[in-house]
Amino acid sequence: MPRMNLGLPFDHCSHLPCRSGFQSPSLLRCGGCQVVKYCGQPHQKADRPRHKVQCIPIKQTKDKVTEEEAKLRANPGEDTDGNPFDNAVGIFYFVPSTRPYMQARFDYISAILNVRTGEAVEVALDQSLDMLRLSRADNLSVRSQVPALYLRLGRDQDAYDFIKWYAVERDTKYNWDDMSLPFLNLHEEDAFEAIIEKPHYTDLSHVVASTLIKIRLMKDLEGLRAFLRSKPNASGEARKSHTTTHIG
């Protein structure tokens, strides 16, 4: 099952059904939201009535993030040594003065996800991971949306690693204040392994994402088996080419 052929458009003109600008390096990026592209100003103008419903909230929430960051830097509050972005990383939400800023970033992500482009999903994922970097305890539950964002970008392995960390590492004894503890440090975990029946942390979104990963793996193996039955003497290069093309 091709991972990058999941219906998520990248680098294309957002004025449907335009195809002339598909994956063109000269596409124009919307100056408001920065996550939608066009083949030229005529199509950008024509699409404005539809797109402004998405674009305006994104710009407004992004401006709010900038405003709240300026406020936080001017008035960082107690226990930050004057700069929470350097001195409160990982425990951001435990510092009350940071909460309006974190809520603004969460609202920005929510607005971005109303746009169905690869660029929008990439920005939402980057923003989500950075919020987790700032606040490990994740009082806004950003962790719930991360696996789905990884999957929409075809990054199944990263999604599985993320889910497994919460399943095996996030127990009641984990100290969110201790920045010396590993955090989201699992990589290249075996997605073929048995399901973890008693995880330390259960989130419905994580269960759904891990189930989808298992189903994709099963379909991948079925596809590879069918290929080998039809071409039992296929060379190693042909098998690799099939895997790359049909699985990704």
Automatic annotation (TrEMBL):
A Pfam family assignment: zf-MYND
Residue ranges constituting the MYND-type domain according to the UniProt record: 18-55
Entry coiled-coil feature ranges: none
Keyword Disulfide bond: no
Protein name: MYND-type domain-containing protein
Native source organism of the sequence: Fusarium sarcochroum
InterPro entries attached to this UniProt entry: Znf_MYND
Sorted UniProt keywords: Metal-binding, Zinc, Zinc-finger
Keyword Acetylation part of the UniProt annotation: no
GO molecular function terms noted in the UniProt entry: zinc ion binding
